[in-house]
Amino acid sequence: MRWTQTLISTLRDAPQDAEITSHKLMIRAGLLRKLGGGLYTFMPLGLRALHKVEQIVREEMDRAGALEILMPALQPAELWQQSGRLETMGPGMFKLKDRQERLMTLGPTHEEVVTDLLAREVSSYRQLPCTVYQIQTKFRDEIRPRFGLMRAKEFIMKDAYSFDVSLEAADASYQAMYDAYTRIFKRCGLTAHPVEADTGDIGGKWSHEFMVVADAGEDAILECAACGYAANQERAERHVCTCAPAADTPPMTDVATPDARTIQEVSAFLKRPAADFIKTLIYVADTKPVAVLVPGDRDVNEQKLKRFIGCKSLALADDDTILKATGAPVGFAGPAGLAIPIYADASLRGATDRVAGANKADTHVIHLSLERDAKVTDFTDLVAVVTGDLCPRCQQTLNTKRGIEVGHVFKLGTQYTDAFNAKFLNEKGEPLTMIMGCYGIGVTRTLQAVVEQHNDADGIIWPAAIAPYQVGILLLDPKDETVAAHAQKLSDKLTALGIDNLIDDREERPGIKFKDADLVGFPLRAVVGAKSLAQGGIELKLRSEKTFTLAPVDMAAEQIREKLSRHKN
RNA sequence: CGGGGCGUAGCGCAGACUGGUAGCGCGUUUGGUUCGGGACCAAAAGGCCGAGGGUUCAAAUCCCUCCGCCCCGACCA
């Protein structure tokens, strides 16, 4: 292919609305163009790279025994009513009506469609295990689309679903996908770490996310260097020391704290550190108010809270609800005397001599001994784990990193197969419910994660496996027929060797071609010019290296193949 | 949804406070000189200044409404 025959336009400046490196580079290098918020067009160059990622995904899915299918993106809403997710995922789904006024959705994911499908298709244990997958466009009405392809309203996902006869068999299917994911990300040139994760709206009991470590990542990961424990902050647990209660805390006493509402204000007023406080938050779980207690210097992890209570919606209570539940305005809630359920963080078990709100305006209490002075419904792990907390496995210190979630694997159990009555007959003719797993890779996000992980000040540095073109042939003297012929010959030879390449045949000065080649990020650059030919050949330079070598014209293609194979990533 | 910021040529920006009907750089087109890390000279094309309404003799500029985009937060009592 020749540069002048394709649609590549590079930009010297990044558009003002691009924030992170990978987003800027993908726009500047002409891979993407924006249509609107969270909506992007893949230009020829970007689409080539995307197709390569898809191809790797396809090969590894096939290798793992999964079967490719393609389900509709447009789906009847009844399916979502049947699973109950029209309610839980509703706000994040695009909905529309057809001319019959039937409510439809644009699929944000496909558990419903696939379970309905397998429930109809599978009737015997002989058909199991069965894992199907598709590479398809998903639609999500994101609260806030961000950073180009990282969080888009429309994006390409590879989603796979496994169906098994038993939990043990399902574990094997899960492991097969987990292993396939490991291979996929490696082949894409990514360093992705599996971490324990929250299951969110998908549901299920167990899941791992594949995280690419990057400062631009939207998730926080807690890692233990000692034992290898790694978890998304949404799920991360910590080891808590069970401290012996102080023998004699004086009776709980009111103290006036006029206008001091926040922990910070009361802490300053009473001259007690935030850690001595019991922070009391009033939430509304579905429709009922509940109180949540955490140490004054800690934050609540709402995902954990939601999971523990088992509610569908969870939000901080408004001022009226707080007044009704505590009898006091916002800022003076405390555990003593509350008539609503109280959930306390496990670290507060045996807490004595603490400060908390008194459930009276402008008043706090001191000498609060939690189990003596309040009726705690349950103690459980509720705080957001942070750097410095102790590993729940080995009690060493945890560290935080930022990560981009590129893949997520779930053990779902029978949540969906129950809802869709997906049963099969076993050897004895008994009907059993299939055990399900689901597995997603954000294909478009993965592409951007690669750029985020592989770049320098000059531009993208593509891993050879997913570069739009593996070789950029810079034709420096396009009007010189001999030189141009050499470039074309090299291109043909490379193509014959299965190495895709692009000849930059523009009538531009060399400087522009060098800059653009670096920006676009060809893994290998071959310079063909009157000067190089006079010196005896064609210049070969890897994007990841500083020096070049001169290859005789007849040897250039072979040498390129060799260089590329030595620098897979 | 709340807070903040921004909408002027394909991209990056100035002009706005102090109204007088639009400019710079890059890019694009043409011609010329150049030609190994984003050259130079000359000429040219390209804009209902996000949309609607108002004030005014006159609005990119002032006022109101809406729309779009970006960032922060989705929350600490």
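The two ends of chain A are 23 Å apart (CA to CA).
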